[in-house]
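DM from R.C. (forwarded with permission)

"hey, sorry to bug you on a friday — could you get me a structure for this? deadline for the figure draft is monday and I only need the backbone to look sensible"
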Amino acid sequence: RHDAMAKTMQRLVGIGDSFQHFATSGQHVPSTAFSTRFMLSDQLATLLEQVQNEASDTARLHAARMLLYLGRHKDSLKLIQPLVDQGINGKALAFHGALCAAMGDMGNAWESSGIAIQAAPNSAFVMICNAFVRACQAGNEEDVLTAANAVGETLLLLEQSHEATLGTGVERLEVLLLRGRLYLLMPKAFKVRDRGIADLETVNSECHTLTETPDSGFGAIMQLRAAFDLASVLTHQTPRAIELYRQVILIDPSCKL
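My reply, with the result:
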């Protein structure tokens, strides 16, 4: 009995370790060459101008998203704060919760994500942001049983998101990207690895739809992340993994992932 308990605890600790790496590892921040190629500064300037001229919630969220993708977490937090203070925009609150979790502020992450799910209970974006918050909790939690419970809650939200409203454009691909990455963190016993691969393959194959749009930079960043994560998990398929790593290098030769 003691041996069985020890093995169970070891397995739980192992689960926590993978989520801890996810919660604390850095994101891909575009290199200077990448930013110049995809004119990210120009795209950001346009989005910020829209925020000033239109006072649009959608424009503000989109600009905050670009700041996050550029690695400017504090600026993104500052820009989204007015929508958080209003407390009615579910997607903005979910974004804020995920951003706070990424920055290690789990108190505000929990508060915003809780309000978000009440404001927009059928949004896949909100569900996936909430799943990210729970994944970060699992990664930062010292108590292994609490961490394991957070993993279970993460999986439940991932599954529920399939029945929710997915959205379009950047939001849709962002949901698929984050959901795919979270699925790949799950223990093998959960048998959801193929779902994660399918989500990431969709992102990798559909990001080109943004190429001729103002969101081309978003598309390139998400395609790079999807290709890298796919290559990491498909190492047993050597030709495919090599192809994907080559794709990453072609998109951003200075990628530091």
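R.C.: lifesaver. Residues 2-24 form the longest helix (23 residues).
me: no worries. The chain has a mean pLDDT of 88.
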